[in-house]
Write a structure and sequence with these properties.
homodimer, Ribosomal Protein S5, domain 2, 40% helix, four-stranded antiparallel beta sheet, Alpha-Beta Plaits, nine-stranded mixed beta sheet, alpha+beta
Chain lengths: 332, 332
């Protein structure tokens, strides 16, 4: 990083889908929760007009200057990884009607490409930090909508839930095409996230479910409907602080995702391991086919479940609810 | 066995549930198929009034004389294992209005207590062989109804499908409280049955599903409905000879049973192993929680799937459709 006097930093949380994934494509509700894994972005002014971005966790860096990209480290994929961050920066500069060079340093404890909304968290934190540095007062609403623009460059037709939950935190019930509704959860949701380390393609999995639905509509439609009803029941369980019910509903939800063909042997190994170790419930989270599962635990079972997931071959990570969403502060 | 001149032997097939188990309790259809694993029962006249029964595969024997049981081999459980066979014999004697002593030798290649209808097959073969020996012409209908009486002494509220399919063979679509409908299957159904060797209680598993349904009716009702629709679609696939569709439906069915909480880690290991080895579809069969799974295979994948199930810790057994049902012949 080059020398500078003023710096602003922002943090924004990752998310997990508690229930309802895949069914959400067909306008059923899903429940999404911000977790205490965060992306951190520090922005500082440069003396020139370049935008220099370094992502510590992705191990890439590069400089954008007069419309051209100059690779720092990270090889051929660096540009496509850094582009969404550049877009977040540029959109914020545009809004503030300012032109200036910036150094952007990204760090994150969110696993990438694991369905945890890493790209949205980075976008939200980038926008908030840039806004702060520019002394432009950005409302959460504004941050959220700029982040959505950046998300469009990463995901095909993003639902908007990732940038929303990274901005506002908390738990949200979400139905495609409708306004997001924050959920007042009396329950203290403690999760162990188990990462199978198996990569998957969200697009392929979504297509698989669509094809299955087309081939067997009479069978698959009630399954989709049942998943939507799980989200509604889970929302009630969260509001009433009934964790046992929430766990049972998560187990049923996992079975239905299994029925839709989006679980995998690795996911089920972690799910069974977590249940055996005393989790209240366990399910895959996100697109499935690999990626992550979540186990709902009570504090006394936390360590046991974490160890069980590790022993079954997963990377285990504790996650609690994040209620604050994006945070921003000046450095120095 | 004591000396005798006349002997009659009968064979009757085991069954597997192709799809619809558990949902059938709630009046949804299920599909049941007779398989080429059979119970064999040989009956011969005795010079006294005793009924002597020896079950080779259960490893028990004993003699009933003037209302009292005298243990041969097999310890304390022998009587309860032999009682249903005695009842089948006595009910047949009653119908023929005859009184005589009999030796009954049972042999079977059906695994017991694995949800394959072993007790019904033994009852059907016992009745048919006894009828033949007594030179009483017993229609299949009659054999089936006497076997149902015997089944009542083994299972709490038997559905009647086990004795029906053991008597008639073939594939039947079955809905509780309705007449059984034989299915003309153009498909050549070849299965590998994988036995987890884990024992389970059908009663407990049925109760578990009932409780889940009571706790979450809005979620569980559409799942039950979806299982019923799988049976209807599977019946069409069988009639049209579309094995690929049948396999896909079996996979979805297994996921829904998993969602109802009646799968187990051991079952899923065999299910995944079979699918990886190229099975068209795989699911648990029967009550679940242990017991058996079935994999639908094409002839070229048969050996591979069989080996995969064995390597995953199961006992693998080939099963084809039995179309003949009960068969009876005189010996010697």
């Amino acid at each position: 990083m080059e020398e500078s006097t003023l710096k602003a930093t922002a943090s924004a949380p990752a998310k997990i889908i508690l229930c309802g994934e895949h069914a959400v494509v067909f306008y059923e509700p899903a429940i999404v929760m911000a977790i205490d894994k965060q992306a951190y972005v520090t922005v500082e002014a440069r003396s020139d007009q370049a935008i220099y971005i370094k992502s510590r966790n992705l191990g890439v860096s590069g400089r954008y200057e007069r419309g051209r990209f100059k690779l720092g480290v990270g090889g051929g994929a660096a540009k496509s990884k850094l582009d969404p961050i550049r877009i977040a920066v540029e959109k914020t500069l545009e809004l503030a009607e300012k032109k200036m060079g910036l150094n952007v340093l990204v760090d994150s404890d969110i696993p990438v490409a694991a369905g945890l909304g890493s790209s949205a968290a980075v976008a939200v934190a980038t926008i908030a930090a840039t806004g702060k540095l520019l002394e432009t007062s950005l409302s959460k609403e504004k941050i959220c909508s700029i982040a959505y623009e950046a998300e469009k460059t990463v995901h095909e037709q993003p639902s908007g839930i990732d940038n929303y939950i990274s901005t506002y935190g908390g738990i949200t019930i979400f139905r495609r095409g409708e306004k997001f509704t924050p959920l007042e959860a009396r329950a203290n949701v403690i999760l162990v996230i188990g990462n199978t380390k198996v990569s998957r393609s969200t697009g392929l999995l979504v297509r698989h479910v669509s094809e299955l639905k087309e081939a067997y509509p009479k069978v698959i439609n009630p399954i989709i409907k049942a998943i939507g009803r799980i989200s509604v029941s889970a929302a009630n369980a969260l509001q009433d602080g009934e964790l046992k019910r929430l766990g049972e509903l998560m187990n049923v939800n996992h079975g239905l995702l299994y029925a839709l063909g989006v679980s995998s042997e690795e996911l089920d190994q972690l799910v069974y391991a977590a249940r055996r170790a005393g989790a209240l419930g366990a399910k895959l989270t996100g697109a499935g086919g690999g990626g992550c599962m979540i186990a709902l635990v009570t504090p006394d079972k936390l360590e046991k479940v974490r160890r069980a997931i590790r022993r079954a071959g997963g990377i285990a990570m504790l996650a609690k609810k994040n209620d604050r969403g994006v945070q921003v502060w000046e450095e120095k």
